[in-house]
Design goal:
Blueprint: E1 12-14, E2 17-19, E3 42-46, E4 53-57, E5 64-65, H1 68-76, E6 85-86, E7 161-162, E8 180-181, E9 237-238, E10 256-257
Parallel strand pairs: 5-6, 7-8, 9-10
Antiparallel strand pairs: 1-2, 3-4
């Protein structure tokens, strides 16, 4: 089967061995604003003084000005992560930005009226004075978001996540509007938490009876004492640092262990945030990793036979010794990745 890999030149796979044709680098997405989606909690900023990439955590950076047309254009091309974007006073009324990641961004006084922001990640974002009238924020993550003085008449925040750091307009009661308080001991019975990013979250003693946690990310979460009776944990992610009741079996519940040598055959990991994970030796046969973020992931010796990596972010990933027989790599970004034969392509 011939597979085209845009980042490794005109690449194709014959008998599971990749061959590459060197070509001149293409322009990288995000050069105009320096905002990239190369990692979950990090982004790359190019230093003008030495042209070397300097990696900084988003907490080290101020929001970067971004043009609305650039945001919408890159979103239309499949990008979702725009961490630390400065969109203050931007006009985004009526736009569809479902599941966009605008974490730690500046959206103060932006016009987002009637916008469709289902499942958007707005953690730590500044939305002071924003126009959110009629905005659809169902299932959005509003933990640490500043919504003071925002206009929220008719805003749908049902199933949205919030915590003690979230600042709402004085007259708004998020619980009465169907929002979920994320905190130790919280009552989340029958809660719809599908795809929720709950990494490092303390959920001790929570009532999660019959909660829908399908595809949620529970890596490093603390679930000790939580009641998970009849909860749906299918395709949820966990790791060695996830803490839960000793008698509860996450694997038997259908959750996926993200760890070296893990068995992830037929795993549903589309758009999963797996930047920097260690999946060396893992069996990912027939796994669906469509547009997953695997930047800087360790995939040494992994079995990716028949896996779907269409549009996946593999920037800086280590695929040395991996089995890529019949792997779909169309539109995958492999800049700086190490190939199965140990070779690599620089940007």
């Amino acid at each position: 089967a011939m597979l085209k890999s845009p980042a490794w030149g005109d690449g194709f796979i014959v008998a599971a061995r990749p061959f590459f044709v060197k070509r001149s680098p293409r322009q990288k997405a995000g050069e105009t604003s320096n905002i990239t989606s190369s990692g979950d909690n990090q982004m790359v900023v190019m230093s003008a003084s030495n042209n070397m990439a300097k990696r900084q955590t988003t907490s080290d950076l101020k929001p970067t000005p971004m043009d609305v047309n650039e945001l919408l254009g890159r979103y239309a091309q499949g990008e979702r992560a725009f961490t630390k974007a400065d969109l203050g006073e931007a006009h985004l009324s009526g736009t569809n930005l479902s599941r966009v990641i605008l974490r730690d961004g500046d959206l103060s006084e932006a016009n987002l009226s009637a916008a469709y922001l289902k499942g958007a990640d707005l953690r730590g974002a500044d939305l002071k004075g924003a126009d959110l009238r009629g905005t659809y924020l169902r299932g959005a993550d509003l933990r640490g978001t500043d919504l003071r003085w925002a206009h929220m008449q008719g805003t749908d925040i049902s199933q949205a996540l919030y915590n003690i750091q979230t600042r709402f307009p004085a007259e708004l009661d998020p619980k009465a509007l169907g929002g979920y308080a994320i905190a130790p001991g919280a009552d989340l019975e029958n809660g719809y938490l599908c795809g929720a990013d709950l990494r490092w979250t303390k959920l001790t003693d929570c009532n999660l009876k019959r909660a829908y946690l399908h595809r949620s990310d529970l890596r490093s979460a603390d679930l000790r004492g939580a009641d998970l009776t009849d909860a749906d944990l299918s395709a949820a992610l966990y790791d060695d640092l996830t803490q839960f009741h000793a008698e509860f079996d996450l694997e038997a519940a259908g959750a996926y262990a993200i760890a070296p040598n893990a068995s992830l055959i037929n795993a549903k990991l589309w758009r999963a945030r797996l930047s920097g994970v260690d999946l060396s030796g893992a069996d990912l046969t027939d796994a669906n990793l469509y547009r997953a973020d695997l930047s800087r992931a360790n995939l040494q010796g992994a079995n990716l036979t028949d896996a779907n990596l269409w549009g996946a972010n593999l920037i800086g990933a280590n695929l040395q010794g991996a089995n890529l027989q019949d792997t779909i790599l169309k539109e995958a970004d492999m800049r700086g990745a190490i190939a199965p034969d140990g070779t690599s392509e620089s940007d």
